[in-house]
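Hi R.,

Here's the input for the MU-OXO-diiron complex you asked about:
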Amino acid sequence: MKISDAMTSAINEQIKAEFDSAYIYLAMSAYFEDAGLAGMAHWMKKQYREEVEHAEKFIDYLYERGARVIIPDIARPKESYADALEVFRTAYAHEQYVTSRIYQLVDLAISEKDYATQSMLQWFVDEQMEEEDNTGGIVSKLEFLGGDKHGIYTVDRELSAR
Ligand code: FEO
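And here is the predicted structure with MU-OXO-diiron in place:
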């Protein structure tokens, strides 16, 4: 069964959203490098790479379905933040936004009875749950620390193990 034009363009928009996410995290990594928080910089760089992989998953899926992939412009990300907590709060809110986008894709796939796309999207539904859990967990820790420098240093060391 041929993938619809509406689904193809919605997935192409999601490819852009994944590259935009990658750039947002790469900029967060650069912010942390500059702030001397090498563990958080490392964590964000890994996140950047994961987002590129997400974009590639969608690209490969469109190839598999014989649909045209549009390589998008990438939006310039925000480059400065008040502190680590603001960075992770922004990342957490961003992941919630991405989850809402994935759910919209699922809604479209269901309305079109596009079972192949629904099946592909299930991986992203699970991945989003994990990403929200990870970023939300770091936000909770940093909120608990309330700017305590020793605590932030410990979290930085923890995140270097990702
Ligand atoms: Fe590709 Fe973090 O969602």
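One thing worth noting: The pocket of MU-OXO-diiron is lined by residues 18, 21, 51, 54, 95, 98, 131 (CB under 6 Å).

Cheers,
M.
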